[in-house]
Amino acid sequence: MSAIAVAGLRMRYGERDVLHDVTFQVEPGEVVALLGPNGAGKTTTIEILEGFRARSAGRVSVLGEDPGRAGEQWRARVGVVLQSWRDHGKWRVRELLAQLAAYYPDPWDPDDLIAAVGLTPQADQKVRTLSGGQRRRLDVAIGIVGRPGLLFLDEPTAGFDPSARRDFHDLVREFVATSGCTVLLTTHDLDEAERLAGRILILDGGRIVGDGTPVSLAQLVAGDDEVRWSLGGERFARPTGHPARFVHDLYREHGDEIRDLEVHRSSLENTYHALVRSAEAS
Ligand SMILES: Nc1ncnc2c1ncn2[C@@H]1O[C@H](COP(=O)(O)OP(=O)(O)OP(=O)(O)O)[C@@H](O)[C@H]1O
Q1: What residues flank ligand 1, with Cβ below 6 Å?
Q2: What's the pTM?
Q3: Which residue, judged by its Cα, is nearest atom 6 of ligand 1?
């Protein structure tokens, strides 16, 4: 059974449709990123899956249940990391996690969890005295305290500096590797999607316009790899779908006279822009 199965999902706010016939599945243990420009419908989609928003039409199953009707037991299996946990400033880190752990049947031990997210030195600090990055670690701890089978992360690193972002990515990767948890995250950050997710869904204007691994998505946009080299002082660049064959032929023709050889894989960024442009043109 898929961890998430969405078929024909529609969402209408007033007169406006913001999700049109969205269909996708996420298998257990997958880490999937939902990417898309502002207003694409990412937060709307994730909130419907979390059970925080009622959909207009379509079938949605999350861990085998309809999130619109599921009860407490289902909620205990679903972890949510919201854009930021602003309440509870007066609580101390350990106290807050111990309190939340009490709601779950099989929670993390608070001290083990605090160590896992790297907050041991701050365990007795009040939440409002934490830095932005430490707070985000606490957000993750709150999301996973009940040992969820599925974790939703909505723009998890918005506002992070580059080193806090890298630490956060390491934390999530390690958590996923050790727990086997399924993850659906939304992000604007292509690099983040590529680092964390094995699969990327591109949502634009309320429609899925791309679904695949970073590599398979790149292959959708033909001829995007580029080989660059110089020869006799002149620079050359050629697009190719078969860079290894191209380089082999180039070497056979020119041998050691080739200098500064580079192969540029088509980036997820190029693919993303091409898919969004072509979806908007149609
Ligand atoms: N409660 C609401 N009432 C009316 N329209 C809404 C509501 N929430 C979202 N929208 C509209 O639905 C569309 C999708 O919004 P959503 O927040 O899901 O997009 P998003 O992809 O998460 O965008 P962003 O990247 O900017 O966070 C937007 O045009 C937004 O203005």
Answers
A1: 13, 18, 36, 38-44
A2: 0.81
A3: 13
